Structures are given as C-alpha cells and as structure tokens.
Amino acid sequence: RLLVIDFGSQVTQLIARRLREDGIYCEIHPFNRVDAAFLEEFSPKGIILSGGPSSVRTATAPRPIEAIYAYGVPILGICYGEQCLVAQLGGEVERATHREFGRADVTVVSSSPLFQGVWTEGGTYPVWMSHGDRVIALPDGFHPIATTPSAPFAVIADELRNYYGVQFHPEVVHTLDGARLLSNFTRQICGLSGDWTMASFREEMTAKIKDQVGDGRVICGLSGGVDSAVAAVLIHEAIGDQLTCVFVDTGLMRQGEARAVVDLFREHYHIPLVHVEAEDLFLSKLEGVEDPERKRKIIGGTFIDVFEAEAKKIKGDFLAQGTLYPDVIESVSFDGGPSVTIKSHHNVGGLPERMNLKLVEPLRELFKDEVRHLGQELGLPEGFVKRHPFPGPGLAIRIPGAVTREKADLLRQADAIYLEEIRAEGLYDAIWQAFAVLLPVKTVGVMGDERSYDWVLALRAVTSTDGMTAESYPFEHRFLSRVATRLINEVDGINRVTYDVTSKPPGTIEWE
Ligand code: XMP
After folding, report:
1. Ligand 1 — pocket residues by CB below 6 A?
2. ipTM exceeds 0.85, yes or no
3. Considering the domain 198-385 in this protein, what is its CATH number?
4. Cα dist. 27→196, 279, 329, 330 in Å?
5. Which residues form the GMPS ATP-PPase domain (predicted)?
6. Which tens digit of pLDDT belongs to each residue from 260-314?
C-alpha cells in the first residue's frame, strides 16, 4: 500500500481516488501525524507528498519528517510536495511573488519510467499547473525530465533513489494523462500490483470486524439509505447474528420503502431486525409545528429517543455506523499555522458515549461510489444501491408548514408517480435527486365541469456531484406535461403542478 502525506491541498483526496480506481490501496494522513513510528507501522511501498498552500521558504512551512528519505521507498512530490523534496534534499526554492494556476504545456526532455506508455521524448502534453514557489536549483542526483517555458523543472527525477517531483497536479482530470502518470509511479516505480478490489476489501474487512468485535454484540441503525445497509450486510457476513439491526420507521419515508428495507433484511439476508413502527409518535410530535428548524430538531430528537430505548434492550457492546472516508479524512488547515481538524459523524447524537458503546465503522476507508460498488458485491439489489439520497427528516421537510398524516399520504402517492415516470423515461440514473414537494397553497381549477379547489405540487429534480451545488434538471416540456396530467388525474387533492428551476446556490435542494 501507498502513503499519501497531506499538506492541505484542495485536491489531495483526488490522489486517493485516482490510485484506488487503479486498484492501488492508499491512505491519506496529515503531515504532522506521520512520525517515524507511524512510518514503520504503516510500512508503505511508496510515498506521495501532496500539494499545499504554504511556501517552503517560510519558517513555519510544514515539512515531512526527514526519516522518509532514509526509509528507502520511492517518493513522488506533487507541487508543494516537489518543493519540500527539493528543499530537504539540498536544492533551492525561490519564493514566488505571485502564484500561477491553469493549463500549461510540458515538453518531455528525457524518457522516464514515469512516462512509460504515455509521454515520449520531444512530445508536448497539457497539464494543470499550480505554480507557487519555483525550484531554481536541483539537489544532487536530480535532473529535469520535462519542462515548460516558465517552469524549467516541471518534472524532475532522481532515478537512482526513485525520487520524482512534478510541479503540476496529475490527480486532476485537466491533466489528461495524469492518472496514467500516477499509475506508472505506483506500478512501474513502486512495484505495486494494483490488485486492490472490492472483493479483497470485503475479505479483509470481514476479518477485521471479527477481530474487533470478538464475541461482543453489535447494534446497527438502518436509515433506509445505502451506507447503513451496506455496513450492516458486511458486518453480518463477519459476525452473523451477533448483529441486530434497528430500523426506526418514522412514517415519513417514500412509498414502499420501509417495507422494502424490512423485507430485504429479514427475508433476503436473514439479519435480525427490530422494526420500530413509530409513525404515530412522530406525527403527534410534529402536530401543528410549522417552523422548518423546529421540525428537524423534533424529528432528530425523537429518533434518538426511540433508537436509544431499543438499543438498551439489545444490550450491545458496539454501535455500527456507515461513516464514509470524506467524513473522516483529517483535513489540514493553515489558519494561523498548521492545525488539524477532524470531522466526524454522529448520526445518533451522543449515544455511543452515553451507553458506553464502542464504534464499528467498516466503511471509513471508502468513498460513496466505492460503497455502492461494495453493495453490489454483497448482492444488494441494483435499485437499492443506486437509489437517490433521501434526507433523515424525510417527507416532513417536503411539506412546508404543518405535517399531517393526510398530507404525508398525498405526497407519498404523488412522489411515487413522479419517480415512476422518471424511471420509465430512463432518466433516473442521470439525476442526483428527484422528488415532489406538497405546497401549503390551494388554488382553483376546473376538472370536467366541476370547480376544484386543491393543493399545489412542486416537482424538483437536480443534477449534482456531491449535493453541495446543484442544477435544476432540464426536462423536456412534454415530459413535465405528461407527469402533471397523471398527477392531477390520479392524486385526489392536487389540481396544479409546478416545476422548480432554482439552482443551488442560491436555493437548496430540499425546500426546508
Ligand atoms: P440541501 O437541501 O441542503 O441538501 O441542499 C443537500 C443534500 O443533503 C440532503 N439532506 C439531508 N440528509 N439529513 C440527511 O441525511 C438531513 O437532515 C438532510 N437535509 C438535507 C438533501 O436531500 C440533499 O441530498
């Protein structure tokens, strides 16, 4: 495996993505956590130094420990990482007066295992440059292997020690051949075989879970989403019925979903499952509450109460969570000097501390699409694995104003028709999230010869890569008309349909 030492670049995570896509297992660790003992313990076959916002010329500049150079494995420095390499090995780096970003063309001046099969001597190739400080003198043993007019040391190598440095970012897609360069570093230079697959992850992780849990009992809260389901199935594979799942049914899920979760776990996987039917409780707590934040707080608080009561009965030793890699990567921040912030998920409030439960988080090392992939590997149905995200507070935040059972039922029915039409049109997988919102507005219509006075439904569909920004999906008008006709004909209580064309920002994906 490979070690990525992070110096705080915005794109460090992409290094891990590119390597894993190529079957190379790697982990990212912040520079100030990698000491000699860590290095021994991790025993990497190669090291990548990431980019970062600092200048190596400042006194407080973060540096990797010198021990990495005595460790004897290949090292690739990217951008700031290249400058560290040069500065620490006796070269010279000049403080730049301004930074330069964007496309540049590098010309290869010497063939290298780094370029094997992609770049040839004399050729010119587009890369994504990020020019901070400039390398002006190379350490002994190094020579340039590619240059640009403004960066004579765009790519440098010391083939004897297997040290390489690139001034640009091979991990971003704008560097067309970047993934191939990284692959050459890990395979040709570090000698890694690229056999890390989901099947091998599954095997290793089940062994680890067995080891961690011993003969303890594990509780896993299912949300109906992909992450908790994949975590549960994997844990069950490892420890069988020492696992008990708890599914708190808020009554605020989409049509057929609660049933589907219960059936999948009980009937298909034979995993012990406690199904808490708490619709009445949630609806009574929400009665008359109109403020979106209060609705969210009530649902979150009620969820924790119900879950905790069930967890107490099970007498577990461990709590399983579907925490993912982006939630746990320790990000390096440089406000007032290097510091480390850790983001962590607490899906069920302070429960682990209160009940003295240890955590089992088997997905901590995976990205979202890797979790989907693992889900497929574990035999979860395709439709389940590819399901659009669904918020914890559920339909309650898609019913602006007070939530009632009648409104929830109406929305569930309308939402199912909308999604059915999207699937029939073959658009489901092209959309990040699609759902209906039941507005607290009544308008006048005419159906047959009758006057109607019913609710308005808003349809929402967005594309997004991470939910942080989003664009409204550009449906064809005839599609929206067809959906509107079906909704008004089939859902009693709705007589008008609108389409939300707001992007995020300034809107959010959900309405509340
Ligand atoms: P917004 O509405 O903030 O949503 O643009 C971004 C993404 O997050 C989902 N979302 C939630 N997910 N609990 C969740 O698990 C929540 O309280 C919650 N609120 C919003 C939303 O569906 C979208 O995918």
Report:
1. 389, 391-393, 433, 467, 504, 508-510
2. yes
3. 3.40.50.620
4. 13, 42, 9, 11
5. 196-387
6. 999 999 999 999 999 999 999 999 999 999 999 999 999 989 998 999 999 999 9
